[in-house]
Design brief:
The chain is of the alpha/beta class. It contains 7 helices and 7 strands, in the order βββαβααβααααββ. The strands form 2 sheets. It has a 5-stranded mixed beta sheet with strand order 3-2-1-4-5. A two-stranded antiparallel sheet has the order 6-7. A hairpin with an 8-residue loop joins β1 and β2. It is globular. The N and C termini lie far apart (40 Å).
């Protein structure tokens, strides 16, 4: 096994909600995943990872410099992916939870560089901001985002079906080797047996983190398939390149 790791973090904006964590090895295979809550929990889980992170893909804003409105990178994502239902949430310094962003604080605490233009290494990992919805649209060639998130009007049965759709697509991501992961089997079983919204909410962030870890791996191993929307000064979001249907 290589000593390189690629980490995915579905980071809650505050410490009250759950954060998903996942790590894959240099071949892209899932090693471990979890769902935690506090900064101390995140740090403790990352400290247990025996491999050295090279790229950390975080589903949360890292750089927020605008006082109001959307960041340029968020508008860029909406221009490309809005028609698929994958527009961005708004991040600005007028919202206390982005001043500073929890993602930036996490990156600073662990010594991760937030410049997506550079290559990461074991000595100086790079943290990139990602957003699963547009990334899924691009990687899975979707006509519309998979509606697995909890929203008004979405029943447990509806979401369970959407999660099964997502799991089916993720099983096709060969580098992850999800069929060999006991934890992935547990998450799939949790979907099948979910009877309440909270049952699905508990696993949503962890599944997103596994997907983010795959994006971290892609960013290092298949850079030509990825794009950076935005810049270091105002914030950037990394997504797979969207291929228009012929």
């Amino acid at each position: 096994m290589s000593d390189r790791a690629f980490v995915g973090i579905d980071l809650a904006w505050g410490i009250r909600a759950r954060t998903g964590l996942a790590v894959v090895d240099s071949t892209g295979s899932l090693i471990d995943s979890a769902s935690v809550r506090s900064d101390e929990d995140i740090d403790e889980w990352l400290g247990r990872t025996a491999l050295a992170p090279v790229v950390v893909a975080i589903d949360a804003p890292l750089v927020v410099a605008n006082e109001a409105g959307q960041r340029p990178c968020e508008r860029m994502v909406s221009v490309q992916f809005g028609r698929f239902g994958a527009s961005c949430h708004t991040s600005n310094l007028g919202r206390p939870w982005f001043n500073p962003p929890r993602g930036a604080t996490l990156a600073d605490r662990h010594g991760w560089d937030m410049d997506a233009a550079r290559l990461g290494s074991e000595q100086r990992p790079v943290a990139i901001e990602v957003y699963p919805h547009p990334a899924m649209v691009a990687l899975f060639a979707l006509d519309r985002v998979i509606p697995y998130k909890g929203k008004a009007g979405r029943s447990v049965d509806f979401r369970r079906s959407a999660f099964r759709d997502l799991i089916g697509h993720m099983n096709e991501l060969r580098p992850l080797e999800l069929g060999a992961s006991d934890r992935w089997g547990f998450l799939g079983s949790a979907v099948d047996h979910a009877s309440r919204q909270v049952d699905l909410d508990r696993i949503e962030d962890e599944i997103d983190a596994i997907f983010c870890a795959h994006l971290a791996w892609l960013w290092h191993h298949d850079r030509d398939s990825m794009q950076v929307l935005g810049d270091r000064a105002t914030g950037s979001i990394v997504t797979p390149v969207l291929h228009e249907p012929r």
